[in-house]
């Protein structure tokens, strides 16, 4: 990186703002409605980074990364196809773990992607996608806080806590928990909507 090149953060004056003011600033720009999750991750970077958005949904997060001038790619399943996908750099797949690319990313972003996977599927996907992560790269993922599978209103969830994620990372080679963040989410179909957000790193 050229030492005279502005940092990614400069456009938001992040170094002059705390995280609350940062998100108020973003909202005033009418860009997108962001949450503390973005700050939780992007504060790690002082350069233009590459990101793979795993399970990009309606592209809310992908839109944010593209606005940040990141080298951003999203992947989504065909069954979740929606009209937003045509506006972004998105690859559609039968299954997420069918993804193949000759490239490695600075950041893998899986916002709520794995909350309905079982433990075996989660481990297999962490193994699969971590091979597309650069050394010292970051892997963000989150879950409802809990100690394992749960059925709520006839819907399956894989709830995770710090101890369980440590056990999972001990099985997946090359990943460790760098940081985690807990907070109560917006009202949804669950009353116990405490989210735990993990930032893994590859060594």
Can you give a write-up of this model?
The chain has helices at residues 19-28, 36-42, 60-67, 119-130, 162-171, and strands spanning 50-54, 71-77, 90-93, 105-110, 133-144, 148-152, 155-159, 175-184, 194-202. It is an alpha/beta fold and 203 residues long. Strands 3-2-1-4-5-9-8 form a 7-stranded mixed sheet, sandwiched between helices. It has a two-stranded antiparallel ribbon with strand order 6-7. The protein has a single domain, classed as Rossmann fold. The two termini are 22 Å apart. It has 5 helices and 9 strands.
Number of domains: 1
Mean pLDDT: 83
Rounded radius of gyration (Å) = 17 Å
Number of helices: 5
CATH topology: Rossmann fold
| Global morphology | globular
Structural class computed from helices and strand pairing:
alpha/beta
Q: What is the end-to-end distance?
A: 22 Å
What does the secondary structure layout of this molecule look like, with pairings?
Elements: H1 19-28, H2 36-42, E1 50-54, H3 60-67, E2 71-77, E3 90-93, E4 105-110, H4 119-130, E5 133-144, E6 148-152, E7 155-159, H5 162-171, E8 175-184, E9 194-202
Parallel strand pairs: 1-2, 1-4, 2-3, 4-5
Antiparallel strand pairs: 5-9, 6-7, 8-9
Keywords:
203 residues, alpha/beta, Rossmann fold, 5 helices, 23% helix
Would you kindly provide a brief summary of this structure?
With 203 residues, the chain is of the alpha/beta class. It has helices spanning 19-28, 36-42, 60-67, 119-130, 162-171; strands spanning 50-54, 71-77, 90-93, 105-110, 133-144, 148-152, 155-159, 175-184, 194-202. β1, α3 (60-67) and β2 (71-77) form a beta-alpha-beta unit.
């Amino acid at each position: 990186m050229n030492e005279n090149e502005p940092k990614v953060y400069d456009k938001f004056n992040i170094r002059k703002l705390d995280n609350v003011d940062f998100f108020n600033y973003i909202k005033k720009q009418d860009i997108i409605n962001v949450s503390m999750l973005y700050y939780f991750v992007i504060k790690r970077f002082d350069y233009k980074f590459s990101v793979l958005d795993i399970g990009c949904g309606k592209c809310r997060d992908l839109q944010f990364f593209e606005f940040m001038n990141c080298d951003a790619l999203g992947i989504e399943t065909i069954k979740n196809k929606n009209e937003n996908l045509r506006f972004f750099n998105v690859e559609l797949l039968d299954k997420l773990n069918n993804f193949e690319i000759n490239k490695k990313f600075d950041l893998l972003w899986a916002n709520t992607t794995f909350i309905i996977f079982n433990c075996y599927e989660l481990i297999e996907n962490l193994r699969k996608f971590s091979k597309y992560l650069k050394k010292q790269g970051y892997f963000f993922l989150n879950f409802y806080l809990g100690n394992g599978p749960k059925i709520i209103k006839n819907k399956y969830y894989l709830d995770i806590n710090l101890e369980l994620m440590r056990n999972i990372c001990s099985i997946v080679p090359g990943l460790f928990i760098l940081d985690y963040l807990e907070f109560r989410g917006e009202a949804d179909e669950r009353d116990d909507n405490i989210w735990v957000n993990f930032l893994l790193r590859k060594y």
